[in-house]
Each structure stands twice: as C-alpha cells, then as structure tokens.
Design a protein that fits this description.
Three copies of one chain form a homotrimer.
Chain A: E1 7-8, H1 9-15, E2 19-21, E3 27-28, E4 30-31, E5 41-44, H2 48-56, E6 61-64, E7 77-80, H3 84-95, E8 110-111, E9 116-117, E10 122-123, E11 128-129, E12 134-135, E13 140-141, E14 146-147, E15 152-153, E16 158-159, E17 164-165, E18 170-171, E19 176-177, E20 182-183, E21 190-193, E22 196-199, E23 205-208, E24 213-214, E25 219-220, E26 227-230, E27 235-236, E28 241-242, E29 247-248, E30 253-254, E31 259-260, E32 265-266, E33 271-272, E34 277-278, E35 283-284, E36 289-290, E37 295-296, E38 305-307, E39 312-313, H4 314-325, H5 327-351
Parallel strand pairs in A: 4-5, 5-6, 6-7, 8-11, 9-12, 10-13, 11-14, 12-15, 13-16, 14-17, 15-18, 16-19, 17-20, 18-23, 19-24, 20-25, 23-26, 24-27, 25-28, 26-29, 27-30, 28-31, 29-32, 30-33, 31-34, 32-35, 33-36, 34-37, 36-38
Antiparallel strand pairs in A: 1-3, 2-7, 21-22, 38-39
Chain lengths: 352, 352, 352
C-alpha cells in the first residue's frame, strides 16, 4: 500500500469537524477499507452493514455519522460527523502523501539544447524534450515521456510516464497528464481523390489550459486550423477521444471512453458521462449533462440533460423507455381490440 | 510469419486424437490459413467451402472432420477428428513457438538499487524499475516499460513494451500485461469547490491476482482507499477501462472497450462483452453475462444475462426489440382501428 | 503555433482557383482561425456569422465565396471561390510545413545488428529495433517506439513516438502510425479448462498495406492463424480496436473508438463511424456504411447503411425511432380506444 501521513486522532477530528468518542491521542497510520485495515488504521462507514464490517475489522478508529453510531458499543475510537462526504474528502487529504519529484534531470534524458527550462524541474529517465520547448518551474516529466518541438508546458504540471506530446502543443500550469495519453496527433480527416483518400493537412495545434487533468491513454488531436482547446479546470478521464478543432470550456467533466468528434463546441461546467459520443460540429451549452452512452447528433441547450441515441431530453427519453417496456403487452391489447372491433362490425353488418 | 515448431504428421495426429489418412511421416512446418499456406503447411476446414479452399491451397495437410472429408479425393494428408475445436486448440499449442526472454538486464535499463530481483529475470532496453520493487523469478519486462516505486510483480509474469505501472501496485504471477496498458493511475473523482473541481486524493492502489491478462492500452485505476482488485484468472481485452475501487472476481472475461465505473463489484466467472458499460457502484453476480454495448445501471443477479440500455434481462430485451420492429405497422393498425371505431360510433349515434 | 509556409496572395489565389479582390502581392504567413489570426494571416468563412468574425479579426486575407462576399466593404484582401471545400484543402496543403526527419540513427537507439536498414532512415532516441527487421528507405521511427523481431516496414512510413509493434508484423510503405498504437498483441481468445481459462496460442501476425494510417492508442491484434489484414489506403482513427483475424479491404474509414471483434471481414471503401461495434465473424460488404454507435451482429450487404443495435438498414431504424417517439401518445390512444370499444360493446349487449 502507498505510504500515508500519520494523524493523531484528536487533531484529525478537529480537522474533520467531527466529534471524537474514545482515544484522542491515537496515532493513526492510514485511512483505508476494512479488508486492508490494521490495528493502526482508520476506516469509514455510511451504512449499518459497512459499520458492522468496520467494527469487525482490526481498525483502531471509525469515521461515521452520529446516527449510525448511536447504539454502538465498541472499544474503537469513533469520529462522528453529519457531513460524511466532506469529512471523507478532508480525511483523504490529511492522510495523502504526495511523492516529491526531485529537481533533477536524469542523465539518460535527451533535452534539446534550445529548450528553456524553469526552476526545480524533474525530468525522468529516457525522456525526450524537443527544440525550443519552454518548460515552467517545478514541473515533472516522468520516464519515457516524449515532448515534441516548440511545446510550452506551465509550472507544476505533471506528465506521467510514457506520455506523447506532438510538436507545438501548449499545456498550462498545474495540469496532470496520465500515462499513455497522446496530445496533438493529426486529426482524422481525408478527402477522396482518384488516387485514394488524401489526408487533410493539420496546420493547427492543441492548447490546454490550467488545472486540466487528462486520463490515461486519452487522445486529444490537433486542429486543422487554429487550435483544439481544453479550457482551464476541465477534467478528462481515461480513454477519451477529443477530435480536431474541438473547443471545450472551463470546469467540464468528461468521463471515461467518451468521444467528441471534430469541431464539437462545449460550454463551461458541462458533464459528459462515460462512453457518450458527440457528433461533429455539435454545440453543447454550458451546464448541460450528457448521460452515459448517449449519442448526441444535434445541439444541446445550456443546462439540458440528454440521453439515448439519438440523444434527447432525458425526461422524454425516460418516458419513451417506459413506453417501450409496456409495448409487448400493448401489442397484445391492440390485437385483442382488433378482434373486438371486427366482431362489433360483423354484428353491425348483420343488423343492416 | 512468426516461427513455429515443426511437427511430424503421425505424431501430431496422435496428439490431436485424430485419424490420419495419407502420409504419417510428413514434416509440417507450420499451421496456417490457406492464403498463407506453403507446401509444408497444415490448414484446417470446418465447412465444405473452407475445405474446397484448403484443397486448392498448396498445403500438405488438412485438419477437418470425417464427415466433411467423406467424399474427398486428394493427395493431401488428412487429419480427421469429430472434436475440431479441441483439435484446433491442441494443434495451435503444438506448433506454437514461445519466444524465450533471455535472463539479462539490458545495460540501458534503470533499475533502482533498492529493488529486489528474483532469478532469471529479463529486463529490456530503457526499462525503469522504481525503488523497493520486488520482482519474482523468470519474469520479463520489455523495452520502455515503467514500473513505479514499491511495486510487487510475481514470477513468470510478462510486461510487454511501453507498459506504465504507477507506484505501489501489486501484480501476481503468470500474468501478461500487453503494451500500452496503464495500471494504477489516480481514479477520476472531483469535488466542486469555490475555486473549481478539486481532485479526491487516491490513497489506495491496484492489486492484480495470478494468471490475469490485461490487453493493450487498457487502464486500471488505483483506489481512493484500499485497492482496485482484479481476481486471479480474469482476462481483460484491449482498451478496457476499470475505474477506482472496482473489485472483480476470478476467471472473468472482459472484452475490448468495455468500461467499469468506480466501485463496481463483479463476481466470479462473469462475461462482460465488448463496449458494454457498467455504472458506478453496481454489483454483477457470479456467472452473469453482460451483452455487447449494454449499459448496466442497476445490479445484475448471479447467472443472469442482460442487454440493452438500460440493461435488462436479455429475453425481455429481445421481446422488446421484436415489438419495436413491429411498431411502425402497429401504429398504422391503431390508426385504422380508430377510424373503424369512429365509424361504428357514428352509426350507433345515428341509430340513437 | 506550428510553422507554416508563407504564400503570396496572388499566386495562392491562382493555386486555389480563386478570384482575388485586393492586394495580390500580400505575404501571408499562415492560414488559421480568426481567434489566432495576426495581421499576416489568412482566415476563411463559410457563413455570414463567420465572415463577420473574420472581418473583425486582424487577418489580412479572407477565403470565402463570391455570394457571401457580395455586399462586403473591407480593406482586407478577399479570395473568392465557389468550391470552398476544395479551396480549403488546397490552401491547407499550400501552407502546410512538413517537419523533415533527419536521416540519422540516434546514439541511444538500440538497433539489432541483424536488422536490414534502408537509405535515409530516421531512428529517434531510445527506439528499439529487433532482430532480422527489414526497414525501407526514408522511414522515420520516433522516440521510444518499439519494433519487435522479424518485422518489415515499408519506405516513407512514419511511426510516431511510443508506438509498440510486436514480433513478425509487416507494415507497408507510406503509412503513418500515431503514438501509443499497438500492433500485433495476442488476440483475445481463451478456452475453459478445469484449471481456468487457457489462452489460445496465436501463431499468426498482422499485415498492414500501404498508405494506411493508424490513430493514436489504437490496437490491432495478431491472428490466431494466418494474419489480421489491413488493406492499403485504409484509415483508422484513435482508440480503435481491431481483433484477431480481422480482414479489412482497401480505402476504408474506421472512426474513433470503433471496435471490430475477431474474424470480422470488411470489404473495400467501407465507412465505420465512431464507437460502432462489429460482432465476431460478421462480414461487411464493400461500400457499406455503419452509423456511429451501431452494434452490428449480422452481415451487412455491400452498399447498405446500417444503424442502431442490433444494426439494421438505416431507413428502417429511422422509421422505428420515429415510431418510438410517438409511442407514449399511441399508448394513450390505445387506452382511449379500449374505453370506446368497451362502451360500444356494452351498448350492443344492452341492445341484445
């Protein structure tokens, strides 16, 4: 298990805005789940079942709510809060041990002589940095990552191992690019010619703002003209595809395996769930939400929630899904009704 | 074509539990398809069409069934079995030539002095191994693969080229990790704050059992607390996403481009087909089957087969799909019925 | 921004088959979008809105149509053409500056002594080339790319950084393989045994034709027997999965995140859109089109367009989608009709 920062139970309770019942001088070595707990661990519980599991674990302390802990008798130390989600976040932050990247350039790294390097930079084994790159202070580029020519990368940004950044890409400060992601490959565009499909030249690039995270093995293609843009604060999960000339606003969340085709425009604060696909040239308004696996082929208004294929307002889609559920029975009712009406007609005809 | 291990036709027939008709002293150099066959190849056929193609190829021998070969007149040697699938597997195993990884550490590899190395280890060019790693016997880590600090990797495991393993990950024995896969990146979790989306610290790790295969460019994220767990014998295809705190049982099959969101629990022997998505916190019971492209948003009972979005029992879904197929016609019938009923009403009103 | 090749406005207009209005001796440094334009840029516009934006930008020249420019009064130089898409392609080609890969082998590259190297080859830092490889003239293999043993790669082909090519793979001439793609990993096939899932040995390989592009982080698995084949001129986007023994024809387009399961056969000139999935052993005829997110579980005839899951002819699917839209209302109409018929029956019964 990764190293954590030990906490004293009383001070931790204060930090978590929690009431402590039991020993306030406990040294807690780590915050974990019951199955990995030791006698110096803290665990947490948000249900009676989880609390029972926690009580049966070796853990010294349990973070939970006053209501759940109400009738509990235990030797373990309890930290109680009504705002468990916030306390979980704060506890994780307290115990979190950040590896420090030493300010060194590994002798096996190949850094072009024309690159401008900021202060306190960490460059790992086998990294390559192209000509005329500008690298900010205190950034870390881990083993095997490739940065092309003419790239700019902001301060405190981390490029994990085996990342590939093509030429002339700009990446902001305080970003995290996970292993295997590829930034700036030529977009996918071809024109039919008598000699086959000819690639459209890509003259543009990729510009990534500050505080952007890019997940493992995600791909962001360069623009045909201008730039593919990822706004500051936007978070991209693993295996996401961002096509050429996409323009994404600030503080968006794009979940794993989603795909945005070329020239998609996304506002601020948009949530695109896993495996969703957005067709080319579509605009998604700020604050909109796209459900998992949705296939969006038309514009989405700001604030709307869409789902399904083709994606439409979620409440409409849910009504349709409900209707489909009752469809097999409805078809039988229709058949029955046809028989009844036929009988009525026959009787009527008989009358006439 | 890759090298294969030559076989003598008679001994091969014995190994495949097949009846041989023709030359039992043939030296067969390789087992291939008709289009790549030479005069020293064996091919196979499971249909009259494939048998005709095989007979027209240069191949010296054909593996097929007695029924298909019944009326065939040929100079080629025939190996006949009623259990063709088993014979195919056995033949592939017989001809399969495994590359041996020499027990050497390439001089360009960067292995931390604190790493504990087992016997007969192969470490390729440019590989990096972090501090305090524990590597089992006879494992192979190919060119450009990155292993972080504090990782444990079991005996006989193969990490192909350009794999990225983050710090403190545990990988069992006899595993195969294909190129480009990423193990242990921080999971995707953020909390909104006044200053934007703050990442949830990930204190946990990834634990992979024995005999696990991970496909090319697949991603397995580390846990927030505790561990993301992949049970022994589970096989993961290419471009699969496994989110933080996912817990997968033994001997599961997860096909290409499937995605499991955070905290999904999967039992033993589960089959998740290609491009399927499982929403966070869902539990999939042992032996269940999730169809391709299914979107699972609720728990799946052990042994059930589900499909569609939202995923439901496959037979229900199939009935719905059938109903939808007849829906355009049903709407016309409904319209017609409305006309008939209106006519009946008018006549009735006229009577009254 | 990436470097571009400067153009003189008059000569450029001739090359684009455009009428020039304004200065035909302008030196235009780059072709870009209004937001990135400088006083020496050319931009383009295909709508009144875009034209207004272009006119408000610092750009010196605008490429647009005679109709859009009809009533415009401007100091900027205008290049006018009725075939804007063709002119855009030609303009991008004119300005496009191709980086040249110097004919050098980086001293940190590990090239096996038995590899046969063509003329003018570029091999970047940390690249590994296995035994008995045959590399064509003027190809470029960028930093950190791994080429296994016994591979053949044709002339002028580019392998971008961090590509992984397994043993015995054949890649044609004039191909582009983007970063992170993985060619030749073992396919995904297992047989159940009493001791768990046993992998099916993969004796085959991958053969890629000429002028094939493979997108970033895409995966093409090797065959069980024979070869997985990608026909010449076929273009594959990012994060695509191509299973073992797939056989793809010439000049196909396979868009991002599509997945082809094992032994799929695809004709020539097929278009498979983003996130579509093709089930194993399916055949797709030449010229067919598979819509985005479609799930193809049966053969598709040449020239057909299919969509949805399970994929069926697009016009049938569209009719179904329309029918589903009207389904909630139809169910109400059905309910109403049942009431009416019941009333008619009651009256009728009363009569009798």
């Amino acid at each position: 298990m990764p190293q954590q920062i030990s906490q004293i139970s009383g001070a931790l309770a204060t930090r978590l805005n929690a009431v402590i019942i039991g020993d306030d001088a406990l040294s807690i070595d780590n915050f974990t789940t019951p199955e990995f707990a030791t006698f110096s661990s803290m665990v947490w519980a948000d249900s009676p079942v989880n609390l029972a599991t926690s009580l049966n674990s070796p853990a010294a302390a349990i973070l939970t709510t006053p209501m759940l802990a109400n009738s509990v008798v235990t030797d373990k130390t309890l930290l109680l809060t009504d705002n468990l989600p916030q306390a979980l976040f704060n506890a994780a932050t307290a115990f979190h041990w950040q590896p420090e990247y030493a300010p060194t350039i590994h002798p096996t790294a190949i850094v072009d002589a024309t690159a401008a390097l900021g202060k306190g930079i960490h460059i790992g084994p086998g990294v390559t940095i192209g000509a005329h790159c500008i690298l900010g202070d205190h950034l870390a580029i881990l083993a095997g990552t490739r940065v092309g020519n003419g790239c700019a990368i902001g301060s405190n940004t981390i490029l994990h191992a085996n990342v590939s950044v093509y030429d002339h890409v700009t990446i902001g400060a305080n970003c995290v690019l996970h292993s295997g992601c590829v930034i700036g490959a030529e977009g996918f565009g071809y024109v039919p010619t008598p000699k086959g499909l000819a690639p459209v030249p890509h003259l543009g690039t990729v510009i990534i703002g500050d505080y952007v995270d890019v997940g493992a093995n995600s791909c962001i293609d360069r623009a045909k003209l201008g730039a593919t843009i990822i706004g500051s604060g936007t978070k991209i999960d693993n295996l996401v595809h961002i096509g050429h000339n996409v323009n994404i606003g600030r503080s968006c969340i794009i979940v794993a395996q989603a795909g945005l085709a070329g020239t998609v425009t996304v506002g601020d604060g948009v949530m695109i769930a896993g495996q969703a696909g957005i067709a080319d040239h579509v605009t998604i308004g700020s604050g909109a939400r796209v459900a998992a696996q949705a296939g969006v082929i038309g514009d989405v208004m700001a604030g709307d929630t869409v789902s399904g294929y083709p994606a439409r307002p979620h409440r409409v889609k849910m009504r349709e899904l409900g209707a489909i559920t009752s469809l097999p029975a409805a078809l039988k009712r229709l058949k029955h009704l046809e028989t009844l009406v036929q009988q009525l007609q026959q009787k009527r005809n008989h009358d006439e």
